[in-house]
Specification:
489 residues, alpha+beta, Rossmann fold, Dna Ligase, domain 1, 4-stranded parallel β-sheet, 26 strands, globular, UCP005522, Circularly permuted ATP-grasp type 2 domain-containing protein, ATP-dep_Glu-Cys_Ligase-2
Length: 489
């Protein structure tokens, strides 16, 4: 029996939309791959998986798990599990996604500019003013500050899921907008390199759209965002340091772009210009691709105890002498309490209907929504509006009675701090696990670059929930990653 056929039998009572199957048959864009996979033995696949793990560990592709401890009490660094079976997306589906993502990120950038300037959308009553102006991510220091090209989120990671029926019909939905310091693009690039190394023959059989040019597009976007008048802007990547969970990515992207990786102590401000210390003396910095949260960027303005940023950075930023990517205050647009309004933003700023829909969302600050959520906790996913990384959430169908009751108490104590959504039947993809090939739930994080134009490489980072039945794909919660193949037409 073909491995995919075995998996399909397992899907007979599985409500998740299978990416590889439609109406009991392999979908057309998976057929060539399925034929190849049928010729691979379990021993061959296990050997390739072990080879991938050795290479990833040698290269140092790890992430820190905050709060987790090894037996000796030290913090842990782990490999993000890599799955050998790619997620394959046909050209027409990607074209739909690409148009929807560009539309969405354009509207979000318009929204951020608006709320720090004329606030037209608030005056029109589209979004309650208190939802924005009292939001923890709204930075009053940014009011009236102009930024190049009116772009705030230069690098956006938009989490997309596909949900639908077992016959293969289904729609893409946006689950979350990550506009502050979205991570994961290095895993997208390394997963592709690994697949090309392990299975070079597959790329001769498939016309897979390339992703290796992402660092070039990123550097182009950052340079396009430089302050006016800088013909050849100097770009740096600002990292919190080697103990940050995404440090590998910070160093990787700096190396791939050919720019300096700096920490806050490497920078200083003089006469409202930013400089970095070098062995040849101070060098002016024009663009900072920051991987440091707002609160730690400038101890003169935000947390005074921060050693991760640079004193005076906001003075230089407000004066227009340096560009910070992503912009300060961008988080107001990716807060989960603002997410339900994004479709209205698209209509308000662009005069268009959304190409990609939101997941239906209950705002627990609304008494009627709260009443419904409290009555249906066991059926819903409940999230903290400021939560991230899979923390601070309840997956009702998988939760214990005690966990449900704990969330009930939290909701009653602070309803405005939560939203809730139905438990989507997320699509599943064939995944190579210890028991063989099995369906596992997935999402997709494409990376959208906004400079003088909106650009993205085809695909993104596919994250996979490796635990059977789990809907949580976050690496901090045991999720893994897959290579994402967009087939060229």
């Amino acid at each position: 029996m073909h491995p995919f056929d075995e998996m399909y039998e397992a899907l007979a009572t599985h409500t998740a939309l299978p990416e590889a199957y439609a109406s009991s048959a392999v979908r057309s864009h998976y057929r060539t791959y399925a034929t190849w996979l049928a010729g691979q033995s379990d021993e061959q696949m296990r050997a390739r998986r072990e080879e991938a793990e050795v290479i990833f560990r040698r290269v140092g592709i790890t992430f820190a798990v905050y709060g987790a401890k090894d037996e000796d009490g030290s913090g842990t660094e782990r490999l993000i599990p890599f799955d050998l079976i790619p997620r394959i997306v046909p050209a027409a589906e990607w074209d739909h996604l690409e148009r929807g993502l560009a539309q969405r990120v354009t509207a979000l950038n318009r929204f951020i500019h608006d709320v720090y300037h004329d606030q037209d959308i608030l005056r029109a009553g589209i979004i309650p003013a208190e939802q924005v102006l009292n939001n923890a991510q709204y930075r009053k220091v940014m009011q009236g500050v102009d930024v190049p090209n009116n772009i705030y989120s230069h690098i956006s990671g938009v989490d997309v899921v596909r949900a639908g029926q077992a016959d293969g019909t289904g729609d893409y939905f946006v689950l979350e907008d990550n506009l502050r310091v979205p991570s994961g693009v290095s895993y997208m690039l390394e997963d592709r390199k690994m697949m090309m190394r392990l299975f070079p023959a597959l790329f001769a059989r498939h016309q897979v759209a390339p992703v290796a040019h992402y660092p070039d597009l990123l550097l182009e976007t950052l340079r396009d965002s430089g302050p006016g008048g800088s013909a050849n802007p100097t770009v740096v990547v600002l990292t919190p340091g080697m103990y940050n969970s995404a440090y590998f990515e910070h160093a990787f992207l700096a190396q791939q772009m050919g720019v300096e990786l700096v920490e806050g102590q490497d920078l200083f401000v003089r006469d409202d210009f930013v400089y970095m210390r070098t062995t040849r003396g101070p060098q002016r910095v024009d663009v900072i691709y920051r991987r440091v949260d707002d609160d730690f960027l400038d101890p003169e303005v935000f947390r005074s105890d921060s050693s991760l940023g640079c004193a005076g950075l906001m003075r230089a930023y407000r004066a227009g002498n340096v560009t910070i990517c992503n912009g300060v205050g961008t988080g107001v647009a990716d807060d989960k309490s603002i997410y339900p309004y994004v479709p209205k933003m698209i209509e308000f700023y662009l005069g268009e209907k959304p190409i990609l829909n939101n997941v239906p969302t209950y705002m627990c600050r609304d008494p009627k929504d709260l009443q419904y959520v409290l009555a249906h906790l066991k059926e819903l996913v409940v999230k903290e509006v400021h939560g991230a990384g899979g923390y601070g959430m309840l997956v009702g169908p998988a939760a214990s009675a005690a966990e449900v009751e704990a969330f009930r108490a939290a909701l009653l104590a602070n309803p405005s701090g939560y939203i809730a959504q139905p438990t989507l039947s997320l699509s599943s993809c064939p995944t190579y696990v210890d028991a063989g090939i099995a369906p596992r739930h997935i999402d997709l994080r494409p990376f959208v670059l906004s400079g003088k134009e909106v650009q993205m490489v085809p695909g993104g980072l596919t994250r996979v929930a490796l635990q059977q039945g789990s809907l949580v794909v976050n690496s901090s919660q045991g999720g893994g990653t897959k290579d994402t193949w967009v087939l060229e037409a």
